[in-house]
Design brief:
Layout: H1 15-41, H2 51-83, H3 88-96
Helix pairs in contact: 1-2
């Protein structure tokens, strides 16, 4: 009796990290929208900026840094996976931590 089999594997990818990047981009976009609304509601005379405006600027900066960091991590593990230095499990373990 003869038996023939075929096996192949397809990497799942790094959808979780991509979703984190997209979520951080959305948060940054929302912060920019809030900032624009605060700037529009701010009195036109030259007064010191209000606290919510400063907070919005800080939130945008922090969120942009988080997006950049997440993009770097995704790119590095995608490259490692292409080079055969990381498995899909390794990528998912890094994303989960």
């Amino acid at each position: 009796m003869w038996s023939v089999g075929l096996s192949f594997s397809v990497p799942i990818g790094n959808n979780s990290a991509r979703a984190d990047v997209a979520a951080n981009r959305l948060i940054a976009s929302q912060a920019r929208t809030q900032l624009a609304a605060i700037e529009e509601s701010r009195p036109s005379r030259s007064e010191p900026p209000c606290v919510p405006l400063d907070s919005a600027y800080e939130q945008i900066g922090v969120t942009e840094q988080a997006v950049t960091a997440a993009e770097v991590v995704v790119a590095s593990y995608r490259k490692r996976q292409q080079l055969g230095l990381a498995t899909t499990k390794d990528v998912l373990d890094v994303v989960a931590t």
